[in-house]
Design goal:
Chain B: Its EC number is 3.4.11.18. The complex is a heterodimer of chains A (369) and B (356). Chain A is of the alpha/beta class and 369 residues long. Chain A is built from ten helices and 15 strands. The radius of gyration of chain A is 21 Å and the shape is globular. Chain B has one domain: Creatine Amidinohydrolase (Alpha-Beta Complex), CATH 3.90.230.
Chain lengths: 369, 356
């Protein structure tokens, strides 16, 4: 057994409406009875209805309280209401919060935990895990009447997608759903499961999806990849609710271009505006007003800066970009996580119709994006 | 008043979760409790919660809890501590009963929460973009803030050993004291003594030579809220307290210096935290500065610590508070008294704050 399988305690926080909480908690207790040695689980209930609707703080604060009171938990599993939908993982010195199936978009919850990370030394956002029903998932994601973007948004903000019921869903349905998930979110790992069983828990726990290290594991290729065609913008055509992934390669940047990139992200993520270099200002007016506004749900990126001083000892730094909705962070990482010269920016959200990569290249003053 | 990190409507829910069973010898290890003692409720003593009926009964029978009622009922007895079994982090104790709630004359316009404590418009406005004030609004804001400064300076002139928390002359200026009944806050001003970080409730405790006290004045005038505070020494204070107050003031000043259109909200904390650290202090993270205008608390959120992910940049016409809370020592954590408001340091060390 891997060490991570031996974690001593999981706190399960239910974020469930009162009626069904009891049923849910029984389900979870059964699970723990199955593995009495490996898992000792505890069920809590958040009184205030839906976590994301009731306020950012109560969730984060409740978890922190829980930690302080019974600091021996290794992981917290936070599960939210309703649909068999995605989730979120908050890691905490070996502790994980896991949000699954919430009626509200996952993004706000993820950003809530990520934003509040600094409030506690021991809790941090590990990642978002989403369960997609292999049989009915398509209907949820694809049905425009179904709160439109909910399913798509949840997949868009996930780091791992569990494609469940693979035993009873048809092969073609699974393949199609998988392709769909990938077009929505090229950066997420999809794992096929039966009855929700994950063979290796490391696939969903300890993701560190909001930390720097594992970012480089983001797949280099995509279903639409054209061989070794670096420098090509991979646009995924299959879209649901206008949400899809965009991968923009980033060349090695100068320090000042690094600052420009930061400004570009501010404009895009905070203001929903593509910034343009003044000489290309006319692009702004070209946009027809019918195009839905630019909205980025999740972004990840890695790039390196080059040292411009001649005879410099060091080659420059590598930076990782992480963002959920309008929150983002650029963090310097060690050289061993260097993207081997090939930086990139992954944007997941509604960007179709907006000349995103043109804006970025003009803003950075590079021609070859 | 400061804003808990993230949206404001958490205040009550977060802190109510904090109330542990008040039994002296709780068999269940003092879990968070929801059953309130009915006698205490009637007497207006908040925070008397028990985890279960058995715990409550046992405490009443052993008379340890009845002392609380007796103290409140007695007219001759002096101030009493309403939370005798609460493990306080420092030496400060509440001195109840509180004075009667201040009546605000009808002619003074009041914010929407004045009646039932719920800030409806704030809750609605929380996801709205940051308001840009026009010239008229800016002017109204200036007037409110000038009144606020006047009230704070007047209140501060009464800070000396032996005085009670001062009742701010807000109503006399035709303004509503914003804290009054905001999410059921019982008083018109927050007075935070020594280890109290913020949101201290003025009670019967007299100031003592060597104390430090923060007066946080907020008022609502002509449709706009003003909010400012400062920490004052009571008589002669220890050098450590002097350093704390000076450091906190400097933190605020340096943060204000970087404010201009185009500056990033996230950079304020980067101006504040290094100063605090260099002086052996830490920056409280749980509470933040906030937008302020027609609403008491709104976007933007202004974290005061360095490693924050605050979004947005400052633009002409925005109005917000910066109000760093700085603790002596390394611990920036916050604990709450059972009154659901008083935020104290977990190690009992002192904390100061300035806000403009």
């Amino acid at each position: 057994m891997s060490p991570i399988m031996n974690f001593p305690k999981v706190a399960v926080i239910m974020n469930e409406f009162a009626d069904s909480a009891d049923i849910e908690s029984r389900t979870i207790n059964v699970t723990s009875a199955d593995n009495p040695d490996a898992l000792s689980e505890e069920v809590l209930e958040l009184a205030n209805g839906c976590l994301c609707c009731s306020i950012k703080d109560s969730g984060a604060a409740a978890i922190e309280k829980l930690m302080r009171k019974r600091g021996r938990f290794d992981y917290i599993l936070l599960e939210t209401t309703g649909l068999a939908d995605p989730g979120q993982h908050v890691r905490d010195c070996g502790m994980t919060v896991f949000l699954m199936g919430c009626r509200c978009p996952t993004g706000p919850i993820a950003s809530m935990f990520w934003e509040n990370e600094s409030m506690s030394d021991c809790i941090y956002l590990d990642g978002v895990v989403c369960v997609v029903d292999g049989v009915f998932g398509l209907e949820t994601i694809g049905n425009p009447d179904h709160d439109l973007s909910l399913g798509a948004r949840q997949i868009a903000s996930s780091d791992v997608v569990l494609l469940n019921k693979c035993d009873i869903a048809s092969q073609s349905s699974i393949e199609y759903t998988e392709r769909l998930i990938r077009s929505l979110n090229v950066a997420a790992t999809t794992i096929k499961t039966i009855k929700g069983e994950v063979a290796d828990l490391r696939a969903i726990i300890g993701l560190a999806a909001y930390a720097s290290a594992p970012f480089v594991e983001i797949p280099q290729s995509s279903p639409h990849e054209h061989g070794e065609d670096e420098g090509h913008v991979h646009v995924h055509d299959d879209q649901f609710d206008g949400i899809s992934s965009l991968v923009i390669p980033l060349p090695s940047l100068t320090a000042s271009q690094g600052v420009k990139l930061d400004q570009w992200l501010q404009s895009v993520l905070w203001e929903g505006q593509l910034p343009w270099h003044t000489s290309l200002e006319q692009h702004r007016s070209v946009l027809p007003s019918l195009i839905p506004p630019l909205e980025i749900l999740r972004c990840k990126g890695i790039y390196s800066t080059r040292n411009e001083e001649p005879h410099a000892q060091r080659s420059g730094n590598t930076y990782v970009i992480q963002g959920v909705r309008n929150l983002y962070e650029i963090r310097a990482v060690g050289d061993n996580e260097s993207p081997k010269g090939q930086g990139k920016l992954v944007l997941i959200g509604r960007w179709k119709g907006h000349p995103v990569s043109q804006s970025l290249s003009s803003w950075l003053g590079v021609s070859d994006i | 008043m400061s804003e808990p990190t993230s949206t404001p409507s958490t205040v009550t829910t977060v802190t109510s979760a904090v109330i542990l069973c008040q039994s002296d010898n709780c068999a269940n290890g003092k879990p968070p409790a929801r059953l309130e003692c009915p006698t205490c409720h009637k007497l207006g003593i908040s925070g008397s919660f028990f985890c279960e009926q058995a715990c409550f009964k046992q405490n009443c029978r052993s008379k340890s809890h009845k002392k609380v009622h007796d103290a409140a009922n007695s007219t001759v007895a002096g101030p009493f501590n309403p939370f005798p079994s609460f493990r306080f982090t420092g030496s400060l104790r509440p001195a109840y009963p509180l004075s009667p709630r201040r009546a605000v004359p009808d002619h003074i316009p009041r914010p929407d929460y004045a009646e039932d404590g719920i800030p409806y418009s704030e809750q609605k406005g929380y996801s709205a973009p940051i308001k840009i004030l026009n010239e008229t609004e800016k002017q109204a804001m200036r007037v409110a803030c000038r009144l606020g400064r006047e009230v704070l300076d007047l209140a501060a002139s009464h800070v000396k050993p032996g005085t009670l928390s001062y009742m701010p002359p807000t109503i006399e200026r035709g303004a509503y004291p914003s804290p009054l009944n905001y999410r059921n806050f019982p008083k018109s001003v927050c007075t935070s003594v020594n280890e109290v970080i913020c949101h201290g409730i003025p009670d019967q405790r007299k100031l003592v030579e060597g104390d430090i006290v923060n007066l946080d004045i907020s008022l609502y005038y002509n449709g706009f809220h003003a909010d400012l505070n400062a920490t004052y020494p009571v008589g002669k204070v220890a050098e450590e307290s002097e350093i704390l107050i000076r450091t906190t003031r400097q933190c605020l000043d340096e943060a204000i210096k970087i404010c201009r259109p185009g500056a990033l909200f996230r950079d304020l904390g980067k101006a504040i935290e290094p100063i605090a650290r260099a002086n052996g202090c830490s920056v409280v993270r749980m509470y933040t500065g906030h937008g302020i205008h027609n609403l008491f608390h709104c976007l933007p959120n202004i974290p005061h610590y360095a490693k924050n992910k605050a979004t947005g940049q400052m633009k002409e016409g925005m109005c917000f508070t910066i109000e760093p809370m700085i603790n002596l020592g390394k611990n920036y954590d916050v604990e709450h008294w059972p009154d659901e408001w008083t935020a104290v340091t977990v190690d009992g060390k002192r904390s100061a704050q300035f806000e403009e």
